[in-house]
Each structure stands twice: as C-alpha cells, then as structure tokens.
Amino acid sequence: MRDDFVFVDEVVSGIRWDAKYATWDNFTGKPVDGYLVNRVVGTRAFCAALEKARDKAAELGFGLLLWDVYRPQRAVDRFMRWAEEPEDGRKKARHYPNIERPQMFEQGYVATKSGHSRGSTVDLTLYRLDTGELADMGGDHDLMDVVSHHGADGVPEEAAKNRAHLCAIMEGSGFSSYECEWWHYNLKDEPYPDTYLDFPIE
To answer: What CA–CA distance (Å, rounded) separates 87 from 68?
Structure first.
C-alpha cells in the first residue's frame, strides 16, 4: 500500500464498514477489479477528518458506516467497460431504474476519473448507536436517480432529516458534499488533489 494510506478501521475506532465493491452487492453484480478484500483504505488526512465526523455523529446518537473510500483506477476502468456491456437487468431496478448504463457517466453518478482514486473521498451513511440499525436515508447506496440528490423532492421527512444530519456532520468536519449523491463527500484539504492511484486493496 502506498505510503500515507492506511486501513481506515485500524486508525479510526468505532466505525463500521461494508466495502460494497469487494462483494457481489453492487451495481455491477460482482466484485470489482482492485477490491481483493472487504476493507476500506484512505489517506491519514482523511482519517483525521473522519475522527471529527465520528465524534459529531455520536453527539447526535449516530455512528458512521463506510461503503467506499479509496478506489483503484482499475475499478473505474472496469465500470467503464461494464457500462458498454449488454444490459442483463440484474441490478437495474435497484441501482439505475430510470437511466441506461452509459448515462451513469453522462449524469455524474460515476466518473471516468474518480475523486475516490485520490484516497480522500468517501461514500457513507449513518446508523443508530442505540439499535445498530441503518438510518433511513430515503434510498440505498448507489441509487443513481434524482431522488438521491441533495434536496430531492419526495424524500420522506425522517429521511430528509437524516440526510441533513449527515451533511452537517461531514461539512462540519472538513468535507464538501456532492449535489447528486447524498452519501458522497470529499475532503476539502485532500493531500493528493491531482493524483489518481491504482494500487489494489489487498
């Protein structure tokens, strides 16, 4: 692993993770290139900011569950190849019900050069510390639809409140939000703003 990158769970105590792209539970329907273990990796600067977010979340009765942080460029390349493959329908209803695969890139849900490959961008959600249950966010991870946008219409009141909590937690800890995805945040002061890496997570 590149210097200054760490397994996030070894540095930030009290977080949970489920590295979706290392599993069959993602929009491609199978583990993605470069994800060889179900762990999350990030920069040390990212971890320092995430500790602040963890503490702010705890004040509201929440914990943090991470889906993805560092993403090898080979995984992004795999997404691009997958987008050109024939539609098999297995994941469409859950992840991209109203668009076709190539439109994921056109509409900004997947990037050909991802901030994740710089090591300080995170996909995450909240869970309740008292029950361990995931907070209702009005939609799942990687639901590529307008309902996933910040301020989307039709989001139930409780889910909208939880999205607002997550946004306040992250923006108050040095991260910026991404308009199209309520779960996606980037460290403002990221250490590698112009570097896209490709080492595998293993």
So the answer is: 25
